[in-house]
Amino acid sequence: MKSKPVYAAQDKRLGLDDLAALVQDGDCVAVGGGLSSREPMALVRALVRAGRKNLHVVGSAHGIDIDLLCGAGAVSKSSESYVGFEQDFGMAPNFRRACESGEVEMADGCCYTLVQQLRAAAYGLPFMPMRSVRGTSFSAMHPEYKTMTCPYTGEELLLVPALQPDVVLIHAQYGDAHGNLRIEGPPVTDILAARASIKVLATVEKLVSNQELQALGGANVPYLYVAALCEVPMGAHPTACYPMYAYDRTHTAAYYAAASAGREAFERDYLQTYVRDCPDHAAYVERVGGSGTQQRLASWSDSNTAWMDLYREVPA
Question: Which residues, in sequence order, are CB contacts of 173 under 8 Å at separation 6+?
Fold first, then answer.
């Protein structure tokens, strides 16, 4: 494993495109958030605009973020445990096409194999033992997995090798200029990936002072892991970033329809419209409805009826 630097700069703020420029073609990229919540979508779109290629994506359970990267031709290998749109829309069309065509090499595992691989890297160990995939076909898919007899119990254990991503992309609710991040709600694998990866690149809904961050509960991703960050309100859209805003089901339905129509249709009807023709994140926010959309998605907390209405806007 590579040695991890300590990022000690007092002011790590960068523009979004400068942040994306710190990801290189061929990097192993862990992606934060999960499913339809707190995915680093503004940074993902910036990577597509920058023309990144041959990325090895790593994550637990993901959706539109990995599907978008696959649809843009940015991915060459996937070590995800799941990529899809759950019961709401179904399988991930771009991801599925890319894997079935051989464009993307599949190295899928389960959520806990990924956790243990990241944990090994975070602890500076070459491997970690586990039990949970015994009896499955995952070992046949991964010749790098090994077995050992526990010297204490005699039990056979599966060993998974350390996985050290070059970079992890995280979207957090709060951060300060020094790079301390505050993730509200379930952190998924973000905190573990931050400890395992060579560097963290972060977008945040709101930049605050360190004193304000402490009042919010303090950092759960400390500055020393974070290479750079950028304030990007609505940076997780169309996924949710609670308590700021809910998942945009209407926009996701339009995305899913374009992705399901094939690669050319996706390029024409979605990538061109919402990524390539938007020079920056502000242009994207305006393209998806601007302040009206922001207010609509922020209304989720008004009442039980309000948040349920957001998921009745388009048919399943």
Answer: 182, 183, 184, 204, 205, 206, 241, 243, 244
